[in-house]
């Protein structure tokens, strides 16, 4: 999901004359609010909340005054409790300057200023760039990181979010599958017909049928759906937990790979609590 922002005077750092650090958090809050309504409408309608557990920011370059920027949200990974949402703050170079000029920065130009392509917009690519940036050489900090569509990456943020009903936590996989998120058609499954190559309104994924049966009359209702989210899902026996199969295959492989990276952020800050 993408959301455009145009910073105002109150969004600027009066000392550095660039987008203030607090404005990144404000933009992330707005983007997350839109994501709730766009990606999790049934969860929102049921009365559930999305609680923010932590946010991690890594600033790569400064966003200059009055520069329009875009926040791009992706689901990085999830575990039994946390959903990790990755935000990329990017700007699009004007066509006139895209080829010949890199974005302005207070960092002096060096021979290492050639753009670093971010070959795929996934967690591994961006975090790898961050690690290189922090290795003491400083080379990647001076070189803009370019997204696949040519946009320049300025900041990466990761939010830990959990789905809450009061003090009850609903696993992210249950909510994602209930909202229709699913693995690609035929991913790890037998395909019945060669003529059908994707899911559609006429050929919905199995998890969508299960979710609709919980909340749509005559067999379902919002109260039934709410009860399921609040803990009834635990009563489903092994082999009948449709949300697990729905997010299996290549989705599960990528979830595990990304989770190893994203959990390191959480564990690193948790360990700082012992520092004195």
3D structure, described in words:
This protein has nine helices and ten strands. It is an alpha+beta fold. A hairpin with a 2-residue loop joins strand 9 (152-165) and strand 10 (168-170). It has helices at 21-39, 41-46, 123-133, 139-142, 172-178, 206-215, 222-229, 242-246, 249-271; strands at residues 2-5, 12-13, 18-19, 49-59, 69-78, 83-91, 116-117, 145-146, 152-165, 168-170. Strands 1, 4, 5, 6, 7, 8, 9 and 10 form an eight-stranded mixed β-sheet that branches. The chain has a two-stranded antiparallel sheet with strand order 2-3.
Which labels suit this protein?
single chain; 276 residues; two-stranded antiparallel ribbon
Proportion of beta-strand residues: 15-25%
Count of DSSP E strands? 10
Q: Radius of gyration over alpha carbons?
A: 21 Å
Characterize the main sheet. 8 strands, mixed
Secondary structure tally, helices: 9
Mean pLDDT: 82
**Gap between N and C termini:** 40 Å
Coarse structural class: alpha+beta
Give the CA-based shape: globular
* pLDDT < 50 stretches: 97-114, 136-140
The helix content is: 25-40%
H-E order: EEEHHEEEEHHEEEHHHHH
């Amino acid at each position: 999901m993408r959301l455009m922002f145009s910073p105002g005077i109150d969004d600027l750092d009066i000392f550095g004359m660039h987008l203030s650090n607090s404005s990144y958090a404000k933009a992330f809050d707005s983007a997350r609010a839109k994501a709730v309504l766009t990606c999790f409408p049934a969860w929102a309608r049921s009365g559930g909340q999305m609680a923010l557990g932590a946010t991690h920011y890594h600033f790569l370059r400064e966003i200059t005054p009055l520069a329009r920027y875009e926040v791009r949200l992706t689901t990085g990974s999830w575990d039994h409790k946390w959903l990790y949402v990755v935000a990329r703050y990017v700007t699009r170079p004007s066509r006139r300057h895209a080829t010949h000029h890199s974005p302005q920065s207070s960092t002096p130009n060096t021979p290492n200023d050639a753009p670093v392509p971010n070959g795929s917009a996934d967690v591994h690519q961006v975090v790898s760039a961050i690690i290189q940036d922090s290795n003491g050489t400083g080379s990647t900090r001076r070189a803009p990181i370019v997204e696949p569509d040519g946009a320049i990456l300025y900041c990466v943020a990761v939010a830990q979010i959990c789905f809450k009903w009061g003090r009850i936590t609903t696993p992210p996989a249950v909510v994602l599958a209930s909202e229709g998120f699913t693995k690609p058609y035929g991913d790890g499954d037998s395909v019945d017909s060669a003529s059908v190559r994707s899911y559609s309104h006429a050929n919905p994924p199995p998890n969508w049928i299960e979710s609709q049966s919980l909340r749509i009359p005559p067999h379902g209702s919002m109260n039934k759906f709410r009860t399921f989210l609040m803990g009834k899902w635990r009563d489903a026996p092994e082999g009948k937990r449709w949300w697990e199969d729905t997010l299996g295959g290549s989705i599960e492989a990528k979830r595990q790979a990304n989770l190893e990276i994203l959990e390191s952020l959480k564990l690193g800050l948790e360990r700082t609590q012992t520092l004195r």
